[in-house]
Amino acid sequence: MLYINCPHCGMRSQNEFSYGGDASVKRPEINKEVSDQEWDNFVYNRKSLRGKHLELWQHISGCRQWIKVERDTATHEIFRTFKADEEVA
Amino acid sequence: MTQAFRIENGGLINRDKKLSFKFNGKTYFGYEGDTLASALLANGVHLVGRSFKYHRPRGFFGAGVDEPYAVVQLYRNGETEPNIKATEQELFEGLEAKSVNCWPSVNFDIGAINNFLKIFLPAGFYYKTFMWPKSFWYRIYEPFIRKAAGLGVASTKHDKERYEHKYEYCDLLIAGSGPSGLAGAYAAAKNGAKVILAEDKPRFGGSLLTSDVNIGNQSGKDWAEGIIAELKIMPNVVVKNRSQIFGYYDHNMLVMSEKVSDHLPSTKKYHPNKRLWYIRAKEVLISSGSIERPIVFGNNDTPGVMLSSAAKEYLKVYGVLVGRKPLVFTNNDSGYETAIEFKKHGVDPVVLDSRKNAESEIIDEARNLGINIKNSYVVVAAQGYKKVKSADIASISDDKKQLGKIENIECDCICVSGFWTPTIHLASQSGNKTKFKEEIDAFVPGQSKQNEITLGAANGVFSLDETIKTSFKAGSELSKKLTKKDNEIAIPNVVEKKSSQHDKFWCVPLPKGKNYKRFLDFQNDVAVSDVEIALREGYRSIEHVKRYTTLGMATDQGKTSNLNGLQLVSEIENKVVPAVGHTTFRPPYTPVSIGAIVGREVGKHSKPTRKSPMHSWHEKNNAVFVDAGVWLRPRYYKRGNENLFEASKREAKNVRTNVGVCDVTTLGKIDVKGPDAAELLNRVYTNAWLKLPVGKARYGVMLREDGIVMDDGTTTRISENHYHMTTTTAQAANVLSHLEYYLQLVWPELNVNVVSTTEQWAGAAIAGPKSRDLLQKLFPNSDVSNEGLPFMGYMEGDLFGVKARIFRISFSGELAYEVNVESDYGNFMWEKIIEVGEEFNIQPYGTEALSTLRIEMGHVAGSELDGRTIPYDNALEGLVSKKKDFIGKRSLQRSAFTAEDRQRLVGVVPLDKKTSIPEGSHLVKDDKAPLPNPKLGHISASCWSVEYDNPFSLAILKDGKNMIGEKLFAMSPLKNKVIPVEIVSSHYVDPKGERVRS
Fold it and tell me: How far apart are CA B875 and CA B889, in angstroms?
């Protein structure tokens, strides 16, 4: 079970969180015209990366905040975690 | 029965406490501190089971977790548990056990005929034989294999034992209390680190309990006892025996199974049977020791053949002689240690050493005691069927290929030592890439991947002195990092006998003309010849060889067989062992009770149960409950001998004619507050929200980004910046997460807060033509007329002194209201509604009537909003704004979603107006069409229309828009029904929606 550093609460076990997918996906702006391709990329197309991956988790049984987690999908190593509004350098 | 093989004195058992137990119906005696295995051996019982495939007689091979043979069915306190290792089961008064895998008895087992057929049952036999004819599989082969396979029998009764889970955090977790574990724990504990020390056996000390060594001028055993006594009283140390760490998971999470009660005749009150520990450790010291490995020879599975270390343990810990004429067969000095113990207890062993010449302190001691030692000698085959009677032995050439003349030597046990295999399971599970250590012919942990270190015998270090030194140092350094304390500890002086290099010899060749079975895996009956077949047939990867032959796949997971299997493959393939590689070590290290894994999450505890504040009223009024997610909701209220159908019809009819009340507390409720609340709703729902006035409610549908309907419900504007959103019972949690996702990540600029208020409000839906009359009596000071409180209106009211929210919304399609009060007043509200409603013939109604009412009105619910439908499919496209953007809107332009013949909600009525259509039935054009009969749609919900007194269903039907009036067939292969039906409008009752506005 992963041990995730919630930027708001500290180290917590994975079973307090729910997974939210790729954090690098940007939703097209509301009210903006988008092409089929752009929309498909947003809704469906995901890279299934092996290695370092920035992903979303929600601390659902804790502070309920969505956070970003930089994790290696092969080794499960977690490098850094970020608040929802924190810029990932 | 006398314990004929128990020595006079010695051992760590409590001779003051005699215990009686039964094995295969016969009563025996043992002592407190015995295992079932040691007590049986004390009574001279060696035959305990039959092997898996050939049903050959099986005895004891080890003395602990590595045991491949002695697996029994245990009976304790009216319960039974299968596949218990007799070597691990501690004796208690009244214990009962039986042999497994034999019929009618262990002494006479009909299945043993397989033994004589063994030439026909080589590796892959089942794969090759049961292929044809195909039709035989289900009727003949599978039942036969099922009957023949498996060991013990699982109980079919409810397990009345209790199991607990515990979460723990520590600085240093230590797996194994041998010399390395004790030294590491002691050093770390002295530095103030929080230490957990786990030992799977009842006694602490590991190899120190049986080895002849001296630490700090004490015997190894006394030193261990001293350290444990000291650790036990330290507040920063948890010391646990009977506790097996069986899994090493991500981020230094280890799981341990503690046997709390298995050693007792019954579980103490308030105690669990087992406790599963989830331990998050900052550092892990793996001191799991090593397991002796056998040398392979003919008939090496005969009862009486066992590991030399096990024989020593039975003698030193339990005071039991495994034989009076022991033959020790060894390729290293460990065999001599066992022989010396025998000799010390007045038994004359013969030692066969495969080495031509070996000299060491230990061998000198054996020689000085006058032990008969034969160098360059091997056991060719054990003789005897149910017990070793003699051994065929021979000299062996230096290249280990040629056997000398076969001699027969009388013996009653053969103690075999083929050197030691480090227990690297936990290290490997952690992700550590193991490496092969040439000097010991075995794998050891390599580079650490997580915060783990392996020391002592588990790391392939068999010198006690080195183990003690490195472990003290490691314990001290690991703890220093965490506690910043550094208390100097004097490392004790170690006295041990030096041993000589072992012989890289592991398998005795077959003598000419003999075809002895030489077993590698004793539990799954995998012999040398089986692995040879697998390789001849082209299996190369060790993982494939394992699966084809089942080598190492039994409940012991090959603890004594894996390495010899690798040796064999490497020899045939002409590769070195590391090039063959080993199979993957996966948790659990040793079998764990399913009960322990499940813990308290059984029956009603498997999920939380949520009850509304009115629950006790429902109970008192004969409600029959149904699970709605984790909620318990009244399904119907039983009157007299009514069944579900009759009661729900009565309740629904009463709503249509008088007035009914339904507990709707379970609906999800979310408070949406902030200056941008309307903007959020406008983006989340498909319809327009910016112009909803205060005091008004609106029905809304929300989509996922892929255009699929996620949920529906009404949201009410309570005040300028405050909205009260309702969701379906099932989706409440998902909707909240959904809103939080957009507010926190996508549109953080929106100034809105959302919070669940489901628990805070109790809700009652009052529905029926007389509901307004009732409402007026409940709220005499409020104007609830059609003008004062129009459809989709909202107001606050005073319910006999309690503040209430009144919504004029309807799910039943009747004139209806929903009243909410704070949860604590829920029961008060309910009782008032019932009391005041009496004059209007009010009846409570449950979820079944609720469904009936909504289905015949054509209102969609979870069975239509099933994660596969878009607004159009549910006839909700009128709620989809063309002007504004919202979540999922862009997806609705996808070609499949705009297709002319898109599926759509319709009503379905059976032509005979009598036959109810099972939910899930498929709609087809032609009931006689050959399979696969093209499916046009499916029945999503069915009811008995109380309005028309005939069955009515909703369906999602392809091109539903143009299908009204068509005749189709509803087919349910599950219920074996074919029902001719007519497609009608989904708005079966009050299609113009006049009642809700009346």
Answer: 16
